[in-house]
Amino acid sequence: MKRTLLILPLIFVLSALPSGSPDPDIAGIEQAVQHYLDGHATGDPRVMTRAFHQSARLQFIREGQYSTRALEAYLGGMGGSPAEDESDRRRRVVSIGYTGDAGVAKLELDYPGALITDYMQLLKIGGEWKIVNKIFTVQRR
Q: What CATH number is associated with residue 75?
């Protein structure tokens, strides 16, 4: 009986450990999101481009009104180098999920003057996850 009692906790612990290899779709979404985050950190539109499908759009509310921006305009606004306050900026992936070839990611960009929350919609296109739409909100400080 003692042997059985000692084995049961071990079985419980082993069953709680992750099994198998990492999910390649989660890894693909993480990679697209990382290109996006790296693009912000570097200010380099070439890095940012790797995250997005070429027809991606950004949608947001500005001064109470719905606004949209094409990817080209968004990338054109990047300075090509890190922001002066880059060392004070923090970014994190809050959540990732997917079903089949459609995925979502929620990100937070914690900057000195604002907290930006991004909701990314991604599609697996030609075997590669790409951001096809970004909606976001900005909370000024």
A: 3.10.450.50
